[in-house]
Every structure is written in C-alpha cells, then in structure tokens.
Amino acid sequence: EEQYVKHENFRRTCINIKAGALLGPFMLMTYFYLSPYNLIMLADDITS
C-alpha cells in the first residue's frame, strides 16, 4: 500500500513535470504579456 502511494505520487509528479515543461514557456509568456493592468482590463471586459 505504502509502495503504491509512493509510485502513484512519483507518476503524478512526472506528469506534472512534463506538463510544466510544455506549458512553462507559454505560461511565462502569457504572464508577462498579461501584466496586472491587462488582467484588470480583461476581467473588466469579461464581467461587462
């Protein structure tokens, strides 16, 4: 049981790392592109 949990956590971590490697650059780009000011404007657009 203990071994299974460790294995499951390891597998999940690997998936997260892979997803992070793929999404990392995109997320960073998006983050810098959408500065707080832009996010506020975006939120304003969505809610209106």
TrEMBL record:
Keywords noted in UniProt: Membrane, Transmembrane, Transmembrane helix
Transmembrane regions listed in the UniProt entry: 15-34
Protein name (Swiss-Prot/TrEMBL): Uncharacterized protein
